[in-house]
Amino acid sequence: MKKELMEVQRQEQLAESIFRLELSGTLVRQMQKPGQFVHVKTGGAYAPLLRRPISIAEIDNEKDTFTMIYRAEGEGTLQLSGLRKGDQVDVLGPLGNGFDPDAEIPGTTALLAGGGIGVPPLYELSKRLKNHGVNVIHVLGFQNERNVFYHNEFAALGETYVATVDGSYGEKGFVTDVIKNNNLVFNSVFAVGPNVMLKAMENSFPDNRMFLSLEERMGCGIGACFACVCKTAEGSYKKICVDGPVFQAGEVLIPC
Amino acid sequence: MKKELMEVQRQEQLAESIFRLELSGTLVRQMQKPGQFVHVKTGGAYAPLLRRPISIAEIDNEKDTFTMIYRAEGEGTLQLSGLRKGDQVDVLGPLGNGFDPDAEIPGTTALLAGGGIGVPPLYELSKRLKNHGVNVIHVLGFQNERNVFYHNEFAALGETYVATVDGSYGEKGFVTDVIKNNNLVFNSVFAVGPNVMLKAMENSFPDNRMFLSLEERMGCGIGACFACVCKTAEGSYKKICVDGPVFQAGEVLIPC
Amino acid sequence: MLNVSLPGLELKNPIIPASGCFGFGKEFAQLYDLSKLGAIMIKATTAEVRFGNPTPRVAETPGGMLNAIGLQNPGLEKVLSEELPRLEQYDVPVIANVAGSAIEDYIEVAEKISSAQNVHALELNISCPNVKTGGIAFGTSAETAGKLTSAVKKVSSVPIYVKLSPNVTNIADIARAVEAAGADGITMINTLLGMRLDLKTGIPVLANKTGGLSGPAVKPVAVRMVYEVSQAVDIPVIGMGGIQSAEDVLEFMYAGASAVAVGTANFVNPYICPEIIEELPHTLKKYGISHITECVGRSWKHEQKPAYSRP
Amino acid sequence: MLNVSLPGLELKNPIIPASGCFGFGKEFAQLYDLSKLGAIMIKATTAEVRFGNPTPRVAETPGGMLNAIGLQNPGLEKVLSEELPRLEQYDVPVIANVAGSAIEDYIEVAEKISSAQNVHALELNISCPNVKTGGIAFGTSAETAGKLTSAVKKVSSVPIYVKLSPNVTNIADIARAVEAAGADGITMINTLLGMRLDLKTGIPVLANKTGGLSGPAVKPVAVRMVYEVSQAVDIPVIGMGGIQSAEDVLEFMYAGASAVAVGTANFVNPYICPEIIEELPHTLKKYGISHITECVGRSWKHEQKPAYSRP
Ligand SMILES: Cc1cc2nc3c(=O)[nH]c(=O)nc-3n(C[C@H](O)[C@H](O)[C@H](O)COP(=O)(O)OP(=O)(O)OC[C@H]3O[C@@H](n4cnc5c(N)ncnc54)[C@H](O)[C@@H]3O)c2cc1C
Ligand SMILES: Cc1cc2nc3c(=O)[nH]c(=O)nc-3n(C[C@H](O)[C@H](O)[C@H](O)COP(=O)(O)OP(=O)(O)OC[C@H]3O[C@@H](n4cnc5c(N)ncnc54)[C@H](O)[C@@H]3O)c2cc1C
Ligand SMILES: Cc1cc2nc3c(=O)[nH]c(=O)nc-3n(C[C@H](O)[C@H](O)[C@H](O)COP(=O)(O)O)c2cc1C
Ligand SMILES: Cc1cc2nc3c(=O)[nH]c(=O)nc-3n(C[C@H](O)[C@H](O)[C@H](O)COP(=O)(O)O)c2cc1C
Ligand code: FES
Ligand code: FES
């Protein structure tokens, strides 16, 4: 973990309110696993006050750059979307545990399910799984066609299904519907998205090896403030920012 | 008075912490008098919260542009100094009464005394006085040589003396010292600067026709909040933002 | 979809410029038609002319500002003879903010000003933190607040709203006391007592030393207090404290306000009130609300009707 | 030029991470050497293990944040057996924040935790706004606050500092009561009670509904209260509320604080405490101060000695 003023290399809009930001700096050298995140400070001294947690979507260790993909909606992410090449941005990271693609057995098939802005971290994960010899199937859920991004990028790595809530792009429905309707077969599951989606995944595929990445409002992002806790089945608790954001299914109770 | 998103045409640094900003927009068409000011909002929705009063230093009615010269010191002016050509900035103005150069008799001599960031409004005033056939003498006071700006610009319009507190540029001392030491002779006085300087001018030249421009912390800038009042000799009060910032000497009691 | 009925007040919309942040409307009348407003809360009026505190009277703070104007105003007589008549040309009810050093002052001002033709309600200022006598002293004890309220209620020809101070341990107690004493409504919050010190000199930036904190910084405190008070009393609440947008208006109404006042934001953007009024119908539509009154108390009505469930 | 002596505490410098914003130091120890700090205020400890409130527990506000953690902590036993021993490797005094639901809880925790080797002072948390019982209930009445203080004073082996709530009408009264009851110092302010509502659903953003407001937004309120309390009592005050910079530290010390705590800013910049410590000597120099203790109470000492005149 490190705090660095990173430099904007590229900022581009991918879809309605969805931006892709490439940052460079030595902090990238510490990024080890897909599914880790960074904590980003935008604006001046106190507006907005808190950092914003954003997943690492792609790591380029040769160029010391990484990419994040985010939805510009609130104050912090809107400011982020105003950054231009050459600007500096205050990044704390990498944070959290992340996924472990090397723990999968080569030759098996992994299902990667993402909902909305849960999709980005799956990209680096998918690349690493593929490198490791694991077959990947992607099921990406969005609200509607205007929000869809990275369809081609994921399709280049493996079988890819897109679902939209209103059916305006790909198949109509939620990711769980698409998985069932297409009778997808897989050994392990990696899911990132809103808690309702994660819960649905847990309930729909109770027998699969499954890893889920959770979101929660954060204060510190480093384990000190107890803002981001969730309960475990045994009545204890985990901090999403340090013990997560990735948990094996059943390890924590998904709040929703 | 009007509120407009004006466009930055030019931003340049003149001296240590001193910047010159040229803005364009139709609001310029309402600018009538030197000594009026604008109320500028920088930053986002609430950081910094309040507008900043800045004097109009030069008006170009042909290009619909005006210039302000300011010291970047606090949060708002530092943000202002970060603006680049093409950026937009929220300006309310023109505000206040201003000086009336046409009320001077052609052929007479006006002394323009400015202290620090009180110097800028004297520039447009000097140009107009000169145009009107009034001789101008400038006495400009600064902390030290690093803060000096617009010496040449004023010198091009008339006799110009510069004083610095530490003597590192021009003559050593306050503007009142310089006026006395050089035995300057004049009919009317126009002074802008810190209250102590205005008071010293009032005391030093009690018999001259004299106009002073006052500064005070402002809320609204338009006369509604009573933040910027000063007392009059008769026990009543004036609002600096609308009844001023320019007052005839003796009209109000200078707080200091 | 924006009209609101309150004791003494038929508002076209729930947007009211807050007292002390709009003078007597004269300056803003040069910028837009005051008839657009729901109502106008005029600057605090005292029996006598007041100059207020020495300057500096304002200071900026993170996300907010401090003021210590000290109730400067031209005095009752001039307000009656000049300020109020000038406002008659607009189709907008006036809420007169009444202040004083002693109960008698409040009674005198309330009685006279409430009979002005365009004054539809009084706002009893028992919460000004910037005067040595009166003001907040009346607003920090439930008993004193109640006494003053009933004394003024007796002489007023129009409904009275009591303006509460947030600088108290239990604001709901004060609210209940003024309700019991006959208040027709509550306005809240006045400013939080705060201070800034000059780094070079070490002394307070404001000549009055302390001042009242307002603006976005105080919004969470104001929303919490409106939430508490609106559940504690049966009279309507006019909410304020940091409102800058149509969304902020919704937040206060969800908390339990029936209308809102906009203060500090008028300094940041003098067109803020008409802009919010124009924006409100779109904001309501965005959140699926067909009339603004549906918003009132939604945060706690929710708990009473478990039919709506948390999404 | 930065060392400060307080009851039970010899501080290298006046910078202390505030309770609840620094856990038990473990996470920050990965970022810098904790021995750099003046002291450490550890997370509130209760007799039993506490999970705290449901999530969401934090929400952002203009210039501030709301939290409703609800005193989550591993419980007295684990703090004694694991957290405090781990902190022994650093050359830094620990101030243990003590909380509970009833007087007996405070007594139990205070007695045991005060005998830990590296605990040099206790901070009595009578101001947590986020728990149903205890917490703020002890801090809003001078009488209750005094009773709790004297009960804890009897059992504590180290000096006790009482942490005051800003959610009161008269904070100086509470301060005087705890001083009379034997408190060795005061820490202030805890958070202001606030609330945010979700625009889509109308319900509170925090699962606990209300939360405690902290960060730069509250700084003017905190400074004002430190100014009042430091003049009302003769015991030292440790000030906090929105401190983000060396300049902010000066402002609190001018107001009357003898040392300060930094809370929310640790989330914005986890290196903030060592950065302020490094910056302080330059800041003091800039303002012509040769030792930090000269700053203490400069805002009001000024009045007592009219020799210094307002420039
Ligand atoms: C581990 C993790 C990884 C994430 N990865 C991504 C990503 O790759 N791309 C992306 O677009 N978003 C991601 N998010 C969500 C992202 O953090 C929020 O969208 C963002 O914080 C919203 O900030 P804002 O300024 O737009 O909203 P505002 O409404 O201004 O935010 C106000 C406050 O609420 C918090 N907040 C709001 N929404 C969320 C949320 N969904 N989760 C956590 N905190 C929230 C903000 O951090 C801030 O403190 C991730 C969240 C977490 C916890
Ligand atoms: C009528 C008038 C004309 C002015 N013209 C100029 C000019 O041409 N060039 C220039 O550099 N400055 C001018 N000033 C001063 C200028 O307004 C302040 O320097 C500026 O507001 C400081 O803002 P900041 O963000 O740097 O400081 P901050 O310290 O962040 O300001 C905090 C608050 O204090 C107010 N404030 C601070 N200093 C002053 C001051 N001296 N006068 C009034 N308010 C102050 C700010 O407006 C703001 O509300 C003028 C002031 C007035 C009243
Ligand atoms: C400069 C200023 C002057 C004020 N004067 C008064 C006043 O005369 N009477 C009153 O009841 N409230 C007064 N207030 C308080 C406001 O009406 C309002 O209650 C408070 O500012 C909170 O709202 P805001 O955050 O929208 O400003 C004043 C506030 C400010 C900023
Ligand atoms: C997330 C969070 C948790 C806190 N937990 C505690 C606590 O356990 N005990 C306590 O006395 N104060 C607690 N506080 C209050 C802080 O110690 C401090 O008094 C307050 O936040 C004001 O300082 P700040 O503005 O610098 O954060 C907490 C504050 C925050 C933001
Ligand atoms: S965000 Fe602070 S503990 Fe996780
Ligand atoms: S600044 Fe508001 S009256 Fe002058």
The percent range for strand residues of chain C is 15-25%
Q: Number of DSSP strands of chain C?
A: 14
Element-by-element helix/strand order of chain C: EEEHEEEHEHEHEHEEEHEHEHHH
Specify the number of helices of chain A.
5
Radius of gyration of chain A: 17 Å
CATH 2nd-level architecture of chain C:
Alpha-Beta Barrel
Shape of chain A: globular
Bound molecules: flavin-adenine dinucleotide, flavin mononucleotide, FE2/S2 (inorganic) cluster
Sheet/helix structural class of chain A = alpha/beta
**Number of structurally distinct domains of chain C:** 1
Low-confidence stretches of chain A: none
Number of DSSP E strands of chain A: 16
Mean pLDDT of chain C: 94
Q: What's the gyration radius of chain C in Å?
A: 18 Å
- Note poorly predicted spans of chain C: 305-311
Name the quaternary structure.
Answer: heterotetramer
Catalytic activity (chains C, D): (S)-dihydroorotate + A = orotate + AH2; (S)-dihydroorotate + NAD(+) = orotate + NADH + H(+)
Pfam families (chains C, D): DHO_dh
Keywords (chains C, D): Cytoplasm, Flavoprotein, FMN, NAD, Oxidoreductase, Pyrimidine biosynthesis
Protein name (chains C, D): Dihydroorotate dehydrogenase
Please characterize this protein's 3D structure.
The complex is a heterotetramer, with 2 copies of chain A (256 residues) and 2 copies of chain C (311 residues). Helices cover 16% and strands 35% of the residues of chain A. By secondary structure, chain A is an alpha/beta fold. Chain A has 2 domains: 2-95, Elongation Factor Tu (Ef-tu), domain 3 (Beta Barrel); 101-215, Nucleotide-binding domain of ferredoxin-NADP reductase (FNR) module (Rossmann fold, 3-Layer(aba) Sandwich). The longest helix of chain A is centred in the middle third of the chain and has 12 residues, at 120-131. The two termini of chain A are 30 Å apart. Chain C is of the alpha/beta class. Chain C has a single domain (4-302), classed as Alpha-Beta Barrel (TIM Barrel), CATH 3.20.20.70. Chain C is built from 10 helices and 14 strands. Chain C has helices at residues 26-29, 76-87, 103-113, 142-155, 171-180, 219-232, 246-255, 265-268, 272-286, 298-304; strands at 4-6, 9-11, 15-17, 40-45, 58-61, 64-67, 94-98, 119-125, 160-163, 185-188, 192-195, 210-214, 237-240, 259-262. Chain C has an 8-stranded parallel beta sheet with strand order 3-14-13-10-9-8-7-4, covered by helices on one side. In chain C, strand 5 and strand 6 form a beta hairpin. Chain C is globular, with a radius of gyration of 18 Å. Chain C starts with a strand and ends in a 7-residue tail after the last helix.
